[in-house]
Design a protein that fits this description.
Chain lengths: ~350, ~350, ~500, ~325
């Protein structure tokens, strides 16, 4: 008898847990929505995608009275495609996906179209161009960042040749096209003699990037521009530099190196607006991408946008750097894109006092 | 109905596998009640589709675990075969001047690669007496590195030949080829498990290695064979994955080895070997898939799902260990009485 | 010999650093029961392993039925008709009787098992020996003797001409041994050659035709048992010649009473019962050696396990006048009860660790100083026991795994003695131990009783119990049949009667 | 004490072999990369493997008992996040470190109960703990409003992890030395260490010798989680942020380090000296490949190959001994 009660208790608890964990809300409310959209982010582990999903959910509900079902892609091809399949099975009206691989995007588009469900891809352009696509203009912004970094370095140290090191995600080709390669193009546009010394995998992680950067700087102490293909890696590079007694700037004048990142999250901007830190540039777009996704999905559902034609919506990936962006602008960017509620100026001051 | 059949049915109903099956049913009922997005034919098709690779490789892994071995390299093996298969089909072997190959030939070569990885595992474990965990962990790294290096980390997505996706996507009389293949493999492995010399020898090796050895079973050869078999199945899974998604990706199968491990464990094959059923593994794979799918349908954040995964894993193993000790005690009591 | 079925000539086996067989030559006749005896490490098991294909020889020659015999694998040896019945039974517990019968020799088509017509034949062989074994029983529900029957049937089934039995009686009760001997004689009458290995000389005299004695890798004697029996007189255990061949010294077995302090009860057991035991009551006095004797399964080991806190029980145990309330091994140890377990390898020694590390394991306090392990203290403890028990080892740092069985047992006993417990339970203290070590262990037990400690010996060897114990508790099916005083002229017929269930 | 420490080194033939491998690696790398043989570089390597050494020293004892802990990476991440979260929300740093370490020990307790008491296979039990701890780490980060915690950390957050002892030696290296000697001490001089070997060599004999096996296993798991948790705090404090995914694959690294150090997975043998050497091999390998600019794909292959070679070399040296 005691055992039976215990078993019942456990079963009830187990059944209640998912509900407690945030599930089961849709029952009473789903019928009130006009549309159901699906969204597959690259991975929920990045602040960028968490913010993008939240923006999408809020914007779609407000503007189009649409509910958004989010299934994480977990940065994994099988999981991403399974998520697409599940969204199809759940009969969503349209979906949006953001992956790290063009082949994966193409496969997803094929799946969705076979089921006659509109789909929009983001960032990574599928090779089969048969569906609308949201393209943050990362290439241009990366080029701009590279050029600006090179200019600032040349202005401060005209005698020291530019040596660039990069941290990437381990050979994803689109990253070269839009981020690392473009950045280096920018550098070269200012100093044609600049050299790309090394490019290693930072695994998108701060800690791993820090370890790798320590090794990079050991092998190539002459490196003076470091680009991390996302903010996490740039922050790791900064931590490594600080550990070696570098990573400093003299009120915005480069001393040892310039670090650039990507995504423009709050953690990065706090460093960027610290005049003494060498992490100085980044760019990003969250809100506009999410809004474009919702707009495109709505457009496809209502017939305003053709479902099976390539249609690119370009979104500015806003460059933010210490020299050309005002603190107020950056504050506003964070508020709009990352649900930031603090004061950037205060956060920068707090971080500086360390 | 003959008495032996009755006995078999009775045995099945009282087995942990059947209870696991009941849990599986209960999960389905729960999710169907909790969300209206779950109980749909298409959703079930997806659930099965998404667990096919685990089911295919799980067949080999179950046999391996029966012999007290395990294979952590299956995920990397899947990725390597996936990418090489696509590479051969799209580019051939450029530096030897070999043109793109017919799919069947590419598939054959890739199966051999899968078998080779199994062979290396087997050699390290049987000849050099490596711990299976260590040997296959080394192969996990090597396989993944080779997969990424083959294509310099890029996926292959252009120049995919016609018919590349047919085996993974097309249907025969409305039934996906994928299901037919899985059904075929699972049924043959169930037969292997119950009726074949191999299945029996696998159980014998896991339950009492010395007895198996002194009964004249070539233990090393059986284990080697099972590793090769698992390698071949992983290779097949690599081909099917490539075909299903119609592109080659060196990053597939990350964490796949642990998913397979969990499915096999949930299915009631202990790490210490000596027993296990293919049917249990299939239920294990389906439970994992249904759980993920159902929680997604309920809109549960992924991180909570991770927590549930841990709780379920621990819960299931406690459940199995309870069942085991109770079942054994009952039989022993019966044995002493009779 | 003209009719030699197996001829062994100058057989040598070398391991890295060790020569296990140093040139052995002898013959085995067809259809005979050929006993092989020797102390542990004498080379018996190496010889057997070469014969069965588990090892390959270094040099020398074996011929089988006139042909050169060089098995490359166990399979190979089996195909030539050589089967083995190992001491550790090689049946797979999780398979059924039927599946075990065909293990390794399945008939198959394309890898799938075909119905084996032989199984029925084997089952008939089995039923010839034991009717209670069923075809679809999982083997873990069978007793040791029943599992042995399965193995013997399997061997016969494989149409062997030679059956090697490695200490088959080690874990059988006398009743089961008798039945086994009947079966062995049946096999002999079918013309099967049997190579029989045992430590129990009485068994050799009972069923052996020939006996070969190994010592230190050499063949030191090859005799006809009939001949020996004539020269030995009526008591086979005291066969001086055979024992001298094996160990080079004569072992006298005679009961010497200990100085028991009957005024001081150290252990009182009242109405002990559990799944395997019913209503066990007895007392143990200071300085006494109490023996428990009975068939295997009579409950000897179970009593030891209860007293040592391993198994649950109903009833009362009083140690030194205190009633035991807490259960468990650690509280038993705390109350001054220590046990030497039956299974040395799985429950006794830490084979990878050195002698020095093994000995203080039961009482780490003896080597601690200020709460930390003191190496000088530890060395002193180790050296003391190595000397006291004359453990033959290279030095105290030698891993226990490299010691012979007898020396391993001494390490286990040393570990237990270091606990300084007042009551010591010894479950089969001399099992699998050669004759010399056996006598040494007996002397240790006597010296313990002289020191005022009380010892309980659980043994399935009657001579040991008669030789050693002051009182003997006779067990039958979980009950005490009789508690008798040991005397010089103890009546062994009466003992047999009691343990068989009579009064 | 010194004499007693020397003894196991001399008895163990694998340790000289490992030392030999390290020597060869150092010589080869010195020739191949001009920047290798520099004090700063060795400092870098030590900093990188410091975390492994501290955690693996504890995990090694678990492996000596014949068990293993796959949850260290998740506990590591969980602790970093928790410490950052509490520090950010007003808990004083020292206090937060204390609470984090205590909670980290709870994971060890869970592992200990599952493995020691309920006798669940450690691979599965600790895999389960891994999932739960990792999930919760992500949930804490999410509750804070993002994927990692960096913003709004108090000014003195990094002063612990970046503290230089005597103004020269990074604190992490000091902790590595402390952990090394602590575990060497536990291994050689305490009954806990001795009993760990006993449990690994023969669990049932240990039980019958009166060793409280459950307690030993539980203590070791708690100790290991404490080390993992403390390292999580240390790392997070050094880097100045906490991310819930930092511990990915850490458990496999720790495992490899132990195995390379000559610890048998089945238990009964192994030493923290081997762990130190194993970690140095891994550190040199990655550092060397990074210095030579070898791409990450080849590094993955290299890791697997070195693992096989190291184990094979050890097996040979073991075979020579017996």
């Amino acid at each position: 008898m005691k055992k039976l009660v215990l078993v019942l208790l456990i079963v009830t608890l187990a059944a209640a847990l998912p509900v407690f964990a945030g599930g089961g809300r849709e029952r009473e409310s789903e019928r009130d929505y006009d549309f159901v959209f699906g969204k597959v982010p690259y991975t929920f582990e990045h602040a960028y995608h968490q913010s993008a999903c939240r923006t999408l959910e809020e914007y779609a509900a407000r503007e189009y009275n649409a509910k958004v079902i989010i299934i994480d892609g977990e940065a994994n091809a099988e999981v991403t495609l399974a998520a697409i399949e599940n969204l199809i099975a759940q009969g969503v009206d349209a979906m949006a996906m953001h992956t790290g691989d063009a082949g994966l995007s193409a496969a997803a588009v094929r799946l969705a179209h076979a089921a006659n469900i509109p789909i929009v891809t983001t960032l990574i352009r599928p090779d089969i161009q048969t569906a609308p696509h949201i393209q943050p203009m990362e290439t241009a912004s990366s080029q701009y960042m590279g050029a600006e970094a090179a200019r600032q370095w040349k202005a401060a140290h005209p005698d020291k040749p530019i040596r660039v090191a990069m941290l990437n995600f381990g050979g994803i080709p689109q990253i070269w096209e839009m981020r690392t390669g473009a950045f280096f193009d920018g550098v070269k546009s200012v100093d044609p003699n600049a050299q790309l010394v090394t490019m290693l995998n930072g695994y998108g992680s701060t800690v791993r990037s820090m370890e790798v950067t320590l090794d990079i700087l050991q092998a190539n102490p002459e490196v003076n521009i470091i680009f991390g293909a996302n903010d996490e890696m740039a922050l790791g590079a900064l931590a490594a530099c600080e550990q070696l007694g570098r990573g400093k700037m003299n009120d915005g004048v480069p001393v040892s190196e310039i670090i650039a990142g990507l995504d423009a999250s709050s953690a990065a901007l706090v460093k960027i607006f610290d005049p003494d830190s060498s992490f100085k540039l980044t760019h990003g777009a969250v809100r506009d991408v999410a809004r474009a996704e919702a707009d495109t999905m709505y457009g496809m559902v209502t017939g305003a946008i053709p479902v099976k034609e390539y249609f690119e919506t370009q979104v500015l990936s806003q460059p933010i750097d210490f020299w050309n962006t005002s603190l107020a602008e950056a504050q506003r960017f964070l508020e709009l894109n990352f649900f930031y509620t603090g004061s950037l100026a205060a956060d920068v001051d707090a971080a500086r006092s360390r | 109905m003959s008495t032996s059949m009755k006995k078999n049915i009775k045995q099945f109903i009282t087995s942990p596998t059947f209870l696991l099956f009941l849990i599986f049913i209960a999960l389905n009922v729960y999710f169907s009640l909790a969300t209206n997005r779950f109980f749909r034919v298409n959703n079930y098709v997806n659930i099965i589709k998404q667990s096919t690779m685990i089911m295919i490789v799980g067949c080999g892994a179950t046999f391996l675990m029966m012999t007290e071995s395990l294979d952590l390299s299956v995920g990397s093996n899947l990725a390597l075969t996936n990418i090489v298969y696509t590479f051969l089909a799209v580019f051939g072997i450029p530096f030897l001047g070999i043109a793109p190959m017919p799919l069947l030939l590419a598939g054959g070569i890739v199966i051999l690669i899968g078998a080779a990885i199994g062979l290396i595992n087997g050699i390290l474990i049987t000849r050099f007496k490596f711990e299976p965990f260590i040997a296959t962990l080394a192969l996990l790294y090597i396989g993944r590195g080779l997969a990424l290096a083959t294509v310099d980390g890029q996926s292959i997505r252009t120049g995919i030949p016609d018919g590349f996706g047919s085996i993974g996507n097309d249907e025969l009389f409305g039934i996906p080829y994928l299901f037919i293949i899985v059904f075929f493999i699972v049924v043959s492995f169930m037969l292997l498990e119950r009726k074949s010399v191999l299945g029996k020898h696998a159980v014998a090796i896991g339950a009492n290695r010395n007895a198996a050895f002194f009964s004249g079973i070539n233990v090393d050869r059986v284990i080697m064979g099972l590793y090769i078999m698992t390698g071949v199945l992983a290779g097949l899974a690599g081909i099917l994955t490539a075909s299903r998604f119609q592109f080659g990706d060196p990053r597939t199968g990350v964490g796949f080895e642990f998913n397979v491990l969990i499915a096999v464990l949930l299915g009631g094959t202990p790490l210490s070997g000596g027993k296990g059923t293919i049917f249990g593994t299939m239920i294990g794979a389906l439970i994992v898939a249904v759980l993920g799918n159902g929680l997604n349908a309920m809109d549960v954040v992924r991180f909570w799902q991770t927590v549930f995964q841990g709780i379920i894993l621990i819960g299931a193993i406690i459940f199995h260990s309870q069942m085991k000790s109770r079942g054994r005690a009952k039989l022993l009591a019966a044995g002493t009485r009779g | 010999m003209e009719d030699a079925f197996i001829q062994v000539r100058d057989l040598v086996k070398e391991f890295p650093g060790v020569k296990a067989l140093k040139g052995v030559s002898f013959d085995i006749r067809k259809g005979s029961i050929h006993c092989v005896v020797g102390e542990n490490g004498a080379g018996k098991s190496t010889f057997i392993k070469i014969l069965t294909g588990a090892y390959t020889k270094s040099s020398g020659m074996i011929t089988l039925d006139g042909e050169v015999f060089e098995p490359k694998s166990i399979r190979d040896a089996m195909n030539r008709g050589i089967s083995v019945l190992y001491q550790e039974l090689n049946v797979v517990d999780d398979l059924t009787t039927e599946e075990n019968l065909s293990l390794g020799q399945e008939k198959s088509t394309l890898g799938f098992i075909r119905k084996n017509e032989n199984t029925q034949k084997v089952m008939e062989t089995i039923w010839g020996m034991d009717q209670t074994i069923k075809l679809h029983m999982p083997v873990y529900s069978l007793s040791v003797a029943q599992k042995q029957v399965i193995e013997i049937a399997k061997a016969i089934n494989s149409e062997c001409s030679v059956l090697v039995m490695d200490e088959p009686t080690a874990s059988l009760s006398e009743d089961e041994v008798r039945r086994l001997f009947i079966n062995i004689k049946k096999l002999k009458s079918k013309g099967i050659t049997i190579i029989f290995i045992s430590h129990k000389l009485s068994e050799i005299f009972e069923i052996g035709d020939y006996v070969t004695v190994f010592r230190d890798g050499h063949m030191v004697g090859d005799r006809e048992v009939r001949e020996l029996r004539a020269s030995c007189g009526s008591v086979p255990e005291s066969c001086v010649e055979l024992v001298r061949m094996m160990i080079g010294k004569v072992v006298q077995e005679e009961y010497v009473p200990s100085k028991v302090d009957y005024s001081k009860k150290v252990l009182e057991v009242r109405h002990l019962s559990n799944r395997r035991l019913s209503d066990i009551s007895f007392d143990l006095y200071r300085g006494e050696i109490l023996g428990f004797y009975g068939l295997v399964g009579a409950g000897k080991t179970e009593i030891g396990r209860v007293l040592f806190g391993i198994d649950p029980y109903d009833g009362e145990i009083w140690v030194n006048g205190d009633k035991q309330t807490k259960k468990g091994v650690r509280s038993a140890l705390k109350n001054g009860v220590a046990m030497i377990p039956e299974e040395r390898r799985s429950d006794g020694i830490f084979s990878m660790l050195s002698i020095r590390e093994n000995i203080p394991m039961m009482n780490i306090k003896t080597v601690l100083s200020k709460g930390l392990i003191s190496y000088p203290k530890e060395r002193k403890v180790a050296d003391r026991f190595i000397q006291k028990m004359s453990i033959a080892a290279r030095d105290r740092e030698q891993s226990v795994v490299f010691l012979s069985g007898g020396n391993q047992q001494k390490v286990v006993i040393a570990k237990c003695l270091n606990r300084e417990s007042d009551i010591i339970l010894m479950d089969e203290p001399t099992r699998g131990v050669d004759v010399g070590a056996k006598e040494e262990i007996h002397n240790i037990i006597r010296s313990l009783s002289k020191e005022g400690k009380s010892v309980i010996v659980f043994s399935s060897e009657l001579p040991e119990v008669i030789h050693l114990c002051d009182r003997i508790v006779l067990m039958h099916e979980g009950r005490i049949g009789e508690i008798m005083e040991n005397r010089k002229d103890i009546d062994s017929d009466h003992i047999m009667q009691v343990i068989a269930g009579g009064n | 004490m010194l004499k007693e420490l020397k003894l196991p080194v001399l008895r163990n033939r694998q340790l000289p072999v490992l030392a030999g491998i390290i020597l060869i690696m150092i010589v080869v790398l010195s020739f191949m990369s001009p920047n290798f043989f520099k004090i700063q570089n060795f400092n870098n390597i030590l900093l990188k493997i410091g975390i492994f050494i501290i955690i693996a020293s504890a995990a090694n004892l678990i492996m000596i008992t014949g068990n293993l802990d796959l949850s260290v990476g998740a506990v590591f991440a969980f602790s970093g996040i928790l410490h950052a979260y509490m520090s950010k929300h007003g808990v004083p740093i020292a206090f937060s470190i204390g609470i984090t370490c205590l909670l980290a020990m709870c994971w060890g307790l869970l592992n200990g109960v599952l493995v020691g008491k309920l006798k669940i296979v450690p691979v599965i039990a600790t895999l389960g703990t891994l999932y739960i701890a990792e999930g919760i780490a992500f949930l804490i980060a999410r509750a804070d409003g993002g994927s990692n915690i960096m913003l709004g950390l108090p000014g003195n957050y990094t002063s612990f992890g970046r503290y230089m002892v005597f103004g020269k030696i990074p604190i992490i290296i000091v902790f590595v030395v402390i952990a090394f000697f602590l575990f060497l001490f536990i291994e050689r001089k305490t009954s806990l260490g001795r009993f760990s070997y006993a449990v690994g060599a023969n669990r049932s004999a240990a039980e019958l010798s009166g060793v409280n096996v459950t307690k030993i296993i539980m203590i070791l798991y708690v100790l290991c989680s404490l080390m993992a948790g403390f390292c999580g705090v240390l790392q997070s404090s050094r880097v100045g942020l906490a991310a819930p995914n930092v511990g990915r694959m850490l458990e496999l690294y720790v495992l490899i380090v132990c195995v390379m150090g000559g610890t048998r997975m089945a238990g009964g043998s192994g030493t923290v000296i081997g762990v130190l050497l194993g970690a140095i091999i891994i550190g040199l390998l990655e550092n060397g490949l990074n210095l030579l600019g070898v791409g990450h794909f080849a590094q993955e292959v290299g890791r697997g190959v070195v693992l096989i070679i190291a184990v094979m070399v050890q097996k040979n040296s073991r075979a020579v001994r017996s």
